């Protein structure tokens, strides 16, 4: 309801002290059950040169810690959790992420293909796939614009492919299909 909005100006600072108390009062805390099988949603991801693909996740049920074996319900790929943590403000490792928390997860060995990090995908513990209902709304993006890109010098192919893979990781609207031309 607009009349309940907190009037805020970042420029003047008006209303800034009232924001946090209003959030606590008006927005319900996340709920979940730590005793249910693990269920977490992939919210975002980014590439780290040392860890590979790092996932930003929201844990709905259960708990997740390093060493857990999880499976993507969208791709069926299985992974071993390498580390979990929270962004506070940078990655701060934690022993466990619990139901209701938002944090990061990376796998060990790392997620190899950036295409496997699909936004909206649900993950669960290996063996619990039939006991967990995937989060609603996940679907593969549908391509709308098609572009072919080739390097002017064939020796730059690997650099071009790496650059495009980085783009795909950070922009979920981009999908790839490799092509080859003798020209």
TrEMBL record:
- Ranges for the Translation elongation factor EFTu-like domain? 52-124
State a GO cellular component annotated for this protein: mitochondrion
One Pfam match: GTP_EFTU_D2
**What molecular function terms (GO) are annotated for this protein?**
GTP binding; hydrolase activity; mitochondrial ribosome binding
An example GO biological process term is: positive regulation of translation
The cross-references to InterPro entries, in alphabetical order and at most eight, read:
EF-4, EFG_III/V, EFTu-like_2, Transl_B-barrel_sf
Gene3D superfamilies from the UniProt entry: Elongation Factor G (Translational Gtpase), domain 3, Translation factors
The identity of this protein, by name, is: Translation elongation factor EFTu-like domain-containing protein
């Amino acid at each position: 309801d607009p009349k309940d909005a907190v009037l805020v100006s970042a420029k003047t600072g008006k209303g800034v002290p009232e924001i946090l108390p209003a959030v606590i009062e008006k927005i319900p805390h996340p709920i979940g059950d730590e005793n249910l099988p693990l269920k977490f949603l992939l919210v975002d991801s980014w590439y780290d040169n040392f860890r590979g693909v790092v996932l930003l996740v929201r844990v709905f049920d259960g708990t997740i810690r390093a060493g857990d074996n999880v499976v993507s319900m969208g791709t069926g790929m299985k992974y071993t959790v390498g580390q979990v943590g929270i962004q506070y403000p940078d990655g701060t490792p934690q022993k466990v992420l619990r139901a209701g928390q938002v944090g990061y997860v990376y796998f060990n060995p790392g997620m190899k293909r950036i295409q496997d990090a699909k936004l909206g995908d649900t993950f669960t513990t290996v063996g619990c796939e039939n006991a967990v209902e995937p989060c609603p709304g996940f679907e593969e993006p549908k391509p709308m614009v098609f572009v072919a890109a080739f390097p002017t010098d064939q020796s730059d192919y690997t650099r071009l492919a790496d650059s495009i893979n980085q783009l795909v990781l950070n922009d979920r609207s981009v999908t790839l299909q490799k092509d080859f031309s003798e020209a």
